[in-house]
UniProtKB/TrEMBL annotation:
Belongs to the G-protein coupled receptor 1 family. The chain crosses the membrane at residues 20-45, 57-77, 97-115, 136-160, 180-201, 231-257. This is Galanin receptor type 3. It comes from Geospiza fortis (Medium ground-finch). It is found in: Membrane. Keywords: Disulfide bond, G-protein coupled receptor, Membrane, Receptor, Transducer, Transmembrane, Transmembrane helix. InterPro entries: Galanin_rcpt, GPCR_Rhodpsn, GPCR_Rhodpsn_7TM. The gene is GALR3. Its main location: membrane. GO terms for molecular function: G protein-coupled receptor activity. Residues 351-362 have a biased composition (Basic and acidic residues).
Length: 415
């Protein structure tokens, strides 16, 4: 953020910011980490993300948001609670570099997915050869490469200086260079992606609502496509709205009248929090709009619940497992005598192991019955475990089948 603010550190504004902003950032961190983590789990579950270009772009968006939340939000929250920057020169450069790296990655990904949705809806057959998982992967590599290129200058943009003996992390470039970089960031990181998104979705929405015959207009496939487009458009609009105040503040600073007072300080603070809030909103949008994501979220939680039950069941069986070691030869039949070798049967309950006595057919028959009982017990336990595992697996890999519209929505989001 350019410039500084001449407000005393004992002012009520700073004291209030020192309380409110860390709370907001803590909520952003909690909701964003859990939400984007669930999005990653849903998309990576059973490898279904490989078969959908849209899901690949959504996965990339979740990775960018999660990287921003984990690597940037905790450090930025300390600006309002600590007197200075206590994390060293490397973190000063790296944190601000990652802020703009993930911002570029998010904006470029939204632009790419808007073009992908337009091709999928406007040219569903012709675009099949273009909209492949491999091409989507190449696009993601290009997105991150361009993001690193545009965010690279921020590695030298910030530096630690000492103000009254306190280290602070601030821009150290001269004004003209800072102005040029801030303008380039606005143009390539916000204006161009927003323009591409606006053009692509305006044409997509126009085609969905007007360029279809009456029969196709009411088809389940068309309804499903509208739902997917609605979800992605909502994500794009939220990105535009959340980052707009941040860029307006910078543009007003360089080209307009932006005095440093309590009102502008509050506006800058609000724009700061709003731009960071965008990183935790996307999972909420997916859950509210997409039935596919809601079902997958439930399946993830259900599978985790069943796995915990299986682990607890195994722990309860630790003390009563039976270990059987066949040294040489074995039993000739289930009830007969021993032939051609020694068989060692060891029971391992909590008490000491019984002494083995291989003399006498009566003792051998007694041991044979014990082995049979143990084998039956083990088979029952394995059968019970297999039933639990089968129930968990069926919830994992078998999607719930609903109406035809829901099936079309799942097919669309997977392809």
């Amino acid at each position: 953020m350019p410039g500084g603010l001449n407000i005393s550190s004992d002012s009520p504004e700073l004291r209030a910011a020192g309380i409110i902003v860390p709370i907001i950032f803590s909520l952003i961190f909690l909701v964003g980490t859990v939400g984007n983590g669930l999005v990653l789990a849903v998309l990576l579950w059973n490898g279904q993300v490989k078969y959908s270009t849209t899901n690949l772009f959504i996965l990339n968006l979740a990775v960018a948001d999660l990287c921003f939340i984990i690597c940037c939000v905790p450090f930025q929250a300390t600006i309002y609670t600590l007197d200075g920057w206590l994390f060293g020169a490397f973190a000063c450069k790296a944190v601000h570099f990652l802020i703009y790296l993930t911002m570029y990655a998010s904006s470029f990904t939204l632009a790419a997915v808007s073009v992908d949705r337009y091709l999928a809806i406007r040219y569903p057959l012709k675009s099949r050869d273009l909209r492949t998982s491999r091409n989507a992967g190449v696009a993601i590599v290009v997105i991150w490469s361009l993001s690193m290129l545009f965010a690279g200058p921020y590695l030298s943009y910030y530096q630690i200086i000492h103000y009254h003996g306190v280290p602070i992390c601030v821009p150290i470039w001269e004004d003209q260079r800072r102005k040029v970089l801030d303008i380039l960031t606005f143009v390539f990181g916000y204006l161009l992606p927003v323009t591409v998104v606006s053009l692509a979705y305006s044409r997509t929405i126009k085609f969905l609502w007007t360029s279809v015959d009456p029969i196709e207009r009411i088809s389940e496939s068309r309804k499903a496509k509208r739902k997917v487009t609605k979800m992605i458009v909502t994500v794009a609009i939220l990105f535009c709205l959340c980052w707009l105040p941040h860029h307006l503040v910078i543009l007003c600073f360089w080209f307009g009248h932006f005095p440093f007072n309590r009102a502008t300080y509050a506006f800058r603070l609000a724009s700061h929090c709003l731009s960071y809030t965008n990183s935790c909103l996307n999972p909420v949008v997916y859950a509210l709009i997409s039935k596919h994501f809601r079902k997958r979220f439930k399946q993830v939680f259900t599978c985790l619940f069943f796995q915990n039950k299986i682990r607890k069941k195994k722990k309860r069986r630790v003390g009563r497992k039976v270990h059987m070691v066949n040294v040489e030869g074995g039993f000739a039949n289930r009830t007969g005598d021993f032939y051609g070798g020694n068989t060692e049967v060891t029971q391992a309950p909590e008490e000491n192991t019984r002494k083995r006595d291989h003399e006498g057919a009566g003792r051998a028959r007694a041991w044979t019955r014990q082995v049979q009982d143990a084998m039956v017990s083990v088979q029952k336990e394995l059968l019970e475990e297999e039933i639990l595992a089968t129930a968990s697996h069926s919830l994992d890999v078998t999607p719930l089948r609903g109406t035809a519209g829901q099936d079309q929505e799942e097919a669309l989001e997977k392809g």
